[in-house]
């Protein structure tokens, strides 16, 4: 099986941990699915048509309603990621057209699904949307990551590329047999248990198990990457950061923003935000920020370009 910390090529990455950890605390879409099923059954009975779920279309950009949500989002996301854009016809944005064009240009590797919250309020409620526009990446039938507000194309590309990286090999074709002659990855029950806890959204158990693995296998940096990302995920999911207790509002905001950026895949932004705060802090606050930055840097391989750049900037900020 593919493990947290593995990446195609020679540099390990916690991409698998990012996928599983970000699913923790995800919104439950089953209620919306059940309601759509009930509406679909009612319509089928009235029209004398079959009550089975509709098949998803092959379009790279689709209009989503509460009735076709299961087919166009849940079912489709079992094969490719679906970026659900929540918007309003009363306040259209240029981002909709940009996402449509990007989805078409990427040739079906992901799908853009637009939902008008005025016409489909149940979808907005399911995602707990506080405002629009809002974009949620769904993979394997569950939310993966999200962002609010209109974003430029370069930022959209960053998010999309990260989603595609994290889900690579885990959706369509994920169950294919290994290539003949390719050695199978050896079984690792302890790591499997940690990953299973992560996949099930039990972040406390996942953190405990990854910590035990780190303690017993100090030379495996991929385990440290996974542990640090689980810790970030747990702070975000619980909305609780023990290290921030008793700190100023400014420090708490810096720490919280950095965690959220890590979850969204914006590592460089997370690192720079903490480094900027280090430059203007002193004493205990400076030490706290330095310690947290070093922990965040461990979510990436030591030779990752973003991590290397951040370590250089940290040295400048400290001295």
TrEMBL record:
<feature type="region of interest" description="Disordered">
    <location>
        <begin position="1"/>
        <end position="61"/>
    </location>
</feature>
<dbReference type="InterPro" id="IPR036249">
    <property type="entry name" value="Thioredoxin-like_sf"/>
</dbReference>
<protein>
    <recommendedName>
        <fullName>Thioredoxin domain-containing protein</fullName>
    </recommendedName>
</protein>
<feature type="compositionally biased region" description="Low complexity">
    <location>
        <begin position="39"/>
        <end position="56"/>
    </location>
</feature>
<feature type="compositionally biased region" description="Low complexity">
    <location>
        <begin position="1"/>
        <end position="15"/>
    </location>
</feature>
<dbReference type="Pfam" id="PF14561">
    <property type="entry name" value="TPR_20"/>
</dbReference>
<dbReference type="InterPro" id="IPR011990">
    <property type="entry name" value="TPR-like_helical_dom_sf"/>
</dbReference>
<feature type="region of interest" description="Disordered">
    <location>
        <begin position="170"/>
        <end position="194"/>
    </location>
</feature>
């Amino acid at each position: 099986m593919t493990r947290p910390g593995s990446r195609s090529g020679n540099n390990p990455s916690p991409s698998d941990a990012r996928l599983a950890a970000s699913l923790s605390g995800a919104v439950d879409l089953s209620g919306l699915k059940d309601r759509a099923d009930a509406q679909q059954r009612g319509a089928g009975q009235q029209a004398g048509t079959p009550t089975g779920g509709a098949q998803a279309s092959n379009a790279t950009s689709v209009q989503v309603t509460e009735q076709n949500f299961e087919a166009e989002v849940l079912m489709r996301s079992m094969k490719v990621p679906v970026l659900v854009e929540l918007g309003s016809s009363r306040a259209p944005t240029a981002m909709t057209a940009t996402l449509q064009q990007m989805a078409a240009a990427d040739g079906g590797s992901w799908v853009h699904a637009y939902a008008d919250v005025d016409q489909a309020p149940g979808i907005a409620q399911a995602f707990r949307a506080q405002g629009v526009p809002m974009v949620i990446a769904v993979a394997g039938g569950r939310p993966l990551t999200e962002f609010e507000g209109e974003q430029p194309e370069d930022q959209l590309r960053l998010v999309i590329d990260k989603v595609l990286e994290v889900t690579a090999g885990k959706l369509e074709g994920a169950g294919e047999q290994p290539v003949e002659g390719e050695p199978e990855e050896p079984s690792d029950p302890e790591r499997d248990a940690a990953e299973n806890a992560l996949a099930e959204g039990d972040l406390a158990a996942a953190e405990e198990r990854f910590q035990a693995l780190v303690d017993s296998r100090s030379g495996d940096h991929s385990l440290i990457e996974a542990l640090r990302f689980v810790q970030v995920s747990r702070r975000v999911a619980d909305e609780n950061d023990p290290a921030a207790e008793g700190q100023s509002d400014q420090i708490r905001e810096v720490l919280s923003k950095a965690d959220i950026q890590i979850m969204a895949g914006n590592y460089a932004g997370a690192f720079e935000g903490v480094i900027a705060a280090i430059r203007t802090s002193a004493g205990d606050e400076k030490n706290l920020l330095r310690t947290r930055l070093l922990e965040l840097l461990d979510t990436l391989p030591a030779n990752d370009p973003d991590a290397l750049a951040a370590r250089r900037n940290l040295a400048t900020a400290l001295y």
